[in-house]
Amino acid sequence: MVFFKHNFSKIQEINSRKLIEKEIRLFMKRDDLLHPNISGNKWRKLKYNMLQLKQEQKTTLLTFGGAFSNHIAATAAAGSEFGVKTIGIIRGEKHSILNPTLQYATDCGMLLKYISRKAYKEKDSPIFQEQLRHTYGDIYILPEGGTNEHALLGCAEIIQEVAEQNDGGLPDYFCVSCGTGGTISGMITGLNNRSKVLGFSVLKGDFLKEEVNVLVHKKTSSNFINWQINTDYHCGGYAKFTPELIAFINQFKVKHHIALDPIYTGKMMLGIFDLIDKDYFAKGSSILAIHTGGLQGIAGFNQRFGNILK
Ligand SMILES: *Cc1c(COP(=O)(O)O)cnc(C)c1O
Fold first, then answer.
1. The pTM is what?
2. What is the whole-number distance in angstroms between the Cα of residue 292 and the centre of ligand 1?
3. Distance, CA 179 to ligand 1 centroid (Å)?
């Protein structure tokens, strides 16, 4: 069986007067187009985890996420595509009507179990994981967001792929949206101190830098100094938004025919354009932003907030 075979996701230039004026070239790598249902960085993170699961001869994958999680949707889709049973441990209460994300996961055959927010905080503890194994048997446990060492391997391939698409050359800057920090950590290891990586945190607070350090150092003893986490564009925190963000995403779609999601990629692109405005990037720089996907979340977002995303 062939796992996670794919064509390179295309790199697309973004054109605008602003970019010409500032002498910046901006590109997006369209990982949102890697797979119709296993979108963006979740595809990259699942790739080597699915291989590992097969190697360990397990047949069930258990993972964790919020009720609108892109990772839950992607994992459910991957399970159905590759014949792996999936269990999703969902943070919070069960609602009588499933939201579009959880409905989709259920349709893919994922078994959903709900736990309280308090219990969810303990999800990575050995005691809780032991209980899970006791309940569900010989499971492959994938952490929240799909982030572990195997995920880093898949995300490092973004860099290899870009180099191959670009005759070995790399842009001056890579930009990526950050939740758990798994994707940027993989990219950092793949870059091995070439170029610069700028991560845009979608969470309030300053803890992500430390998490990325831990993830990177689990993988390598090298020290990388070519990355930063920007914490200025979370728009109020995880899954929070501002009218400015919504207007930006809607305008971006009209202008460039690329949909952005309101949780991750929209905030990153808002941040990139604001930083360009503020002359953060030197004249003549090239920037490659990773479109990490997440578009499945738009339906649930619009359902909650009244179709504000076009
Ligand atoms: C999950 C997700 C991220 C965050 O990735 P991490 O590896 O957790 O930092 C970014 N963008 C999208 C669209 C996602 O779904």
1. 0.97
2. 6
3. 5
